[in-house]
């Protein structure tokens, strides 16, 4: 009995040690897709690079198993059976563990659900926050065009100031969101990729709040590099 128990423990230990590290198992469904190819891509040196692909031949379900050393934004593309690559894509925050993406052929890239990634949940929260500012800006732009058509300079100037105010608020909201999510890789990601013309002050502020494991992540190191680059200029 002791021998059997010891053997089982050794076998379990061996299986654990042989398990792939930092592996992401991505499964999902594209409802309505009968034939085509799903392509998993990442951004490397500002270029989209394919990581893996899955041929869909009648089964709407798919599965990818890839190494994700550090949580990062990946993209799921769809090439149709006629060879056309859809313009729409599914961006999602990949991380170690089991993730699921469900969508439809008709709404691919527009309507989808991602589960299993904490960073992706934060990413969706951030996108919702930014959409509110985008909606405000669209309303102002519409009113500006009307004022321009009516040659109403006074109204146009007021709206111009409102537009600038919305942009400043959006900028600060991004920084504050990054600060509030300092325990997640989404925080340095936002600072590096989502804020145009970010100042050194805010880069330093966010970076100084990050715990060491986030500083050591892909986007944490990208943020450190950006800070050094700006300091050198």
What's this entry about, in short?
This protein has 233 residues and is α+β, with helices and mostly antiparallel strands. The chain has helices at 2-18, 118-149, 153-180, 186-193, 200-209, 212-215, 218-232; strands at residues 23-31, 35-44, 47-57, 61-67, 72-80, 90-94, 97-104, 112-115.
Give an overview of the whole structure:
By secondary structure, this protein is of the alpha+beta class. It is built from seven helices and eight strands; from the N terminus they run αββββββββαααααα. Strands 4-1-7-8 form a four-stranded mixed beta sheet, covered by helices on one side. Strands 3-2-5-6 form a four-stranded antiparallel beta sheet. A hairpin with a 2-residue loop joins strand 2 and strand 3 (47-57). The protein is globular, with a radius of gyration of 23 Å. The model has no long low-confidence stretch (mean pLDDT 92). Residues 1-21 form the signal peptide.
